[in-house]
Specification:
By secondary structure, the chain is an alpha+beta fold. About 40% of the residues lie in helices and about 30% in strands. The chain is built from three helices and five strands. Strands 1-2-3-5-4 form a five-stranded mixed sheet, with helices on one face. Helix 1 runs parallel beside helix 2 (about 35-60) and helix 2 runs antiparallel to helix 3. The longest helix has 22 residues, at about 35-60. The mean pLDDT is about 95.
Length: about 130
């Protein structure tokens, strides 16, 4: 329960600093004790970076974070209803590069979808 509590605290903190409402849904079937510290630290840091980006740039009303498990995969999905961005300019951001590196560190597949004025979606699949 410690890691779940840390994630809940992260969401609460982000709800207090900006105009975006962050919603967290964590599947009750996840046993965080089966995941290494390396995986948990990188998930936390990725979420930290993504939520900071939402607060800074997205102009979103809502951001949804869903963490679930399916077929030996841990799935982390973050989506917002903000202004989105041009994926061609993605490589220029330090934060995005940090997210990509952290995903690579834990052998996660990272999918980023964004359209101007349609929000952004990050889908992270970690094979366990």
């Amino acid at each position: 329960g410690e890691f779940k509590f840390l994630l809940e605290q992260l969401i609460q903190k982000n709800n207090e600093i900006g105009n975006t409402i962050f919603n967290l849904e964590i599947s009750s079937t996840i046993d965080w004790n089966t995941y290494s510290s390396l995986i948990k630290i990188n998930i936390y840091r990725i979420l930290q970076e993504l939520l900071q980006n939402v607060n800074k740039y997205a102009e979103a009303k809502n951001c949804f974070i869903k963490i679930s498990n399916l077929n030996n995969n841990l799935i982390v999905e973050i989506r917002d209803d903000g202004k989105g961005f041009d994926l061609k300019n993605l490589s220029s951001g330090i934060g995005i590069n940090n997210i990509k590196e952290r995903a690579k560190t834990i052998n996660a597949e990272l999918i980023i979808e964004s359209n101007n004025l349609e929000g952004t979606r990050f889908h992270i699949t970690i094979n366990i």
